[in-house]
Specification:
Blueprint: H1 7-16, H2 19-29, H3 32-38, E1 42-45, E2 62-68, E3 81-90, H4 97-116, E4 127-133, E5 164-167, H5 180-191, H6 198-212, H7 218-231, H8 234-247, H9 250-269, H10 275-295, H11 300-308, H12 312-322, H13 328-332
Helix pairs in contact: 1-5, 1-7, 2-3, 5-6, 5-7, 6-7, 6-8, 7-9, 8-9, 9-10, 10-12
Length: 335
């Protein structure tokens, strides 16, 4: 992850940084051939430090290490074998995602190669790169890395790999099962950018109510509530509060009201009259201006273009883009 997190980054890590919940995520989402192999393995959530310290804008969302039975090893003489599952979640189609993942993988392999030294028999573990998509738009970015290279290139010199691609929005809500933390995390991530309809609002509210009574899930519940107040429209937040009130879940309703008031006061303090929605727009504009100016520099006209943007989705897309953008035009094209 980058130093500048989106709300979706915060939600993803709050839900899945716990090893047991990360295991559930993997076994639930991966194809059966992979999930069956990993089912009995010990899982560790790797620290972010495993990914490039010198390129802080190129940091993985979630890296899991599965410790398999040594008998499955090939070429390592029965020593412990690791399978790394590398998750990169996206809320918008991202053209260069396979390049981004390839960078992550080479950084991880280089770190492990350095640890192994000059052992002539040393091998590197496999890495399963996963793109977990939860956006509104149809995914139209290449998922085969070689498709990013101009036609006619000698295929012997072009990496060919395809990450596992999972579109969370296509999984029906009633098929999302597991522990309370896993279900709440997946459903909240799925609906964070979708238009929130009544059945989903009620299911989320029921899970939040259960999470408030569970010390292990209470923090995640408050993260979900706060982020939904941040990214959802005022009508959607009102619908969530109404569902909590109707069901008698006053602790959930109270949290929404508290977070909404905090956001409203923040908007007022910034001189914004549109409350939550305008407050979110203004904060996104300010962050985008600061990041683009710091990375590329901004002209007055470009600054005014960002300030004039009234589309929260476009601002979020530009913020996502800046992490890996090679040019200012690439970021501003999202507006």
């Amino acid at each position: 992850m980058s130093d500048t997190n989106t709300p979706y980054d915060t939600l993803f890590r709050a839900a899945f940084v716990d090893p047991q919940t990360a295991r559930e995520l993997t076994l639930f989402l991966l194809p059966e051939a992979h999930s069956r192999r990993l089912a009995g393995a010990r899982v560790t959530v790797e620290p972010e430090s495993l990914v490039d310290q010198q390129a802080r804008t190129h940091r993985t969302d979630l890296l899991l290490q599965f410790d398999l039975d040594g008998s499955t090893a090939t070429g390592n003489g029965g020593s412990t074998v690791y399978v790394y599952v590398l998750y990169e979640h996206k809320s918008y189609p991202h053209r260069w995602v396979t390049l981004q993942l390839l960078r992550y993988m080479t950084v991880i392999w280089q770190r492990l190669a350095d640890e192994r030294g000059e052992d002539r028999h040393a091998l590197l573990p496999p890495i399963l790169p996963v793109v977990l998509y939860h956006g509104k738009e149809k995914w139209d970015a290449p998922l085969q890395f070689a498709e990013l290279i101009v036609e006619g290139a000698d295929s012997r010199h072009v990496p060919h790999y395809r990450p596992i691609f999972l579109n969370l929005t296509k999984i029906p809500d009633d098929r999302i099962t597991g522990s309370l933390r896993a279900m709440l995390g997946l459903l909240a991530l799925k609906h964070a950018r979708l238009d929130l309809e009544e059945p989903a609002a009620q299911m989320l509210t029921e899970l939040l109510h259960l999470a408030h009574a569970d010390p292990a899930a209470r923090h995640l519940a408050r993260v979900v509530e706060y982020i939904y107040v941040t990214v959802k429209s005022e009508d959607e937040v009102d619908a969530l509060m109404a569902a909590a009130s109707r069901l008698g879940y006053h602790e959930v309703e109270g949290d929404y009201m508290t977070f909404a008031q905090v956001m409203l006061e923040k908007g007022r303090n910034e001189g914004l009259e549109q409350g939550l929605e305008q407050g979110s727009l203004q904060r996104s504009r300010e962050v985008l201006i600061r990041l683009v100016d710091r990375k590329f520099g901004l002209t007055d006209a470009e600054r005014e273009r960002i300030v004039a943007c009234e589309d929260q989705s476009a601002l979020d897309a530009a913020l996502d883009e800046i992490l890996d953008a090679g040019s200012k035009a690439q970021v501003l094209a999202r507006l």
